[in-house]
Write a structure and sequence with these properties.
Layout: E1 3-11, H1 12-24, E2 29-34, E3 53-61, H2 66-77, E4 85-89, H3 94-99, E5 105-107, E6 111-114, E7 127-129, H4 142-153, E8 160-164, H5 170-177, E9 182-186, H6 190-202, E10 209-212, E11 225-229, H7 232-237, H8 239-245, E12 251-258, H9 262-270, E13 274-281, E14 284-290
Parallel strand pairs: 6-7, 8-9, 8-11, 9-10, 11-12
Antiparallel strand pairs: 1-3, 1-4, 2-3, 5-6, 12-14, 13-14
Length: about 300
């Protein structure tokens, strides 16, 4: 199978948003590269270096309509007149080449994400083995990192977890690692569910997971922890459904939200739930809220 590399050069302020958009559009891997010969020294563990002029590249299967992807991202992010370049690449295991740059990362005080090509040091107990494959969400992006830290801060493990738009499953896997009993992985992308299943199998948690392709299957789950790292628009539209789905006393973690989108997203949920906190990083926000122990959520 052949591949296409779709790329664009952008300023520092837009690089992260474009990378997120490429991942959301189905890119198997996204890279940020120096487009202006600007050295960056010793980036911190788990961070992504950003240059003043950054080339953002997305890797896609050859059959994709790259012009439609580029046009859609340009319209959504206001990149009027942006120049996108698409190159056809020879077949190779590109996702494995990308894994060479995926390093162990810590979230909060105790949660670690380790790719399978790294040995786990003695003494580390809360470790998720993760190979992302062709699916979004490895912990390298601020939206995922903020969610992982919110999960790690939760005082009690969740008995039931729903990962709504699971990508490679990292959020639900982290919740299982921290003591959760069972997780429902929901996504409409077959590649995402395949990656999530593979990662659950790698961590020996297959018997604690349920794969879901139809969200109606979630209507009777009522999770103690509901994770939704998607986009602001869908989060607002889904607010009544997700709030009702959450169990009394449960926690919801919402991300994929730009700073300027945080207020309307929070308003959509705080009319039904109690806001716990909002954390911001690199222009992205994660919102945590809870449902009262005995409550009827307004429609």
């Amino acid at each position: 199978m052949g591949w296409r590399r779709l790329s664009i050069v952008a300023g520092e302020s837009m690089a992260d948003a474009i990378a997120e958009a490429l991942e959301r559009s189905g890119a198997g891997a996204v890279s940020l590269l120096d487009a202006g010969d600007q050295p960056l020294y010793e980036p911190a563990l788990g961070t992504t270096p950003i240059w003043a002029a950054t080339r953002i590249e997305g890797l896609y299967e050859e059959s994709v309509d790259w012009e439609a992807i580029a046009a859609g991202i340009s319209a959504r992010l206001g990149l009027c007149g942006a120049q996108w370049i698409c190159h056809r690449l020879e077949d190779r295991t590109w996702e494995r080449a990308w894994m060479d740059r995926f390093r162990p990362m810590r979230f909060g005080e105790r949660l670690w994400i380790y790719p399978s090509n790294y040995g786990i040091p003695d003494g580390l107990r809360t470790v998720v083995r993760l190979d992302p494959g062709l699916a979004f969400g490895t912990g390298t992006h601020p939206t995922t990192a903020l969610c992982l830290e919110a999960i790690e801060r939760r005082a009690m493990p969740a008995e039931r977890i729903v990962d709504y738009g699971c990508g490679c499953g990292v959020l639900a896997l982290a919740a299982l690692c921290l003591g959760g009993s069972h997780a429902w992985f929901f996504d409409t992308d077959a590649q995402a569910l395949t990656a999530a299943h593979d990662n659950a199998e790698r961590n020996e948690w297959v018997h604690q997971m349920t794969m879901v392709t139809d969200r109606e299957q979630l209507s009777t789950v009522h999770p103690d922890l509901l994770l939704a790292n998607i986009l602001a628009g869908p989060l607002v539209a889904l607010a009544p459904e997700l709030s009702q789905l959450l169990a009394p006393g449960g926690t919801i973690v919402l991300s994929g939200i730009l700073v300027e989108q945080a207020e309307p997203v929070a308003a959509a949920y705080t009319s039904r739930l109690e806001l716990v906190d909002m954390h911001e990083r690199e222009g992205w926000v994660c919102i945590t809220a809870t449902r009262a122990q005995s409550s009827v959520v307004a429609e």
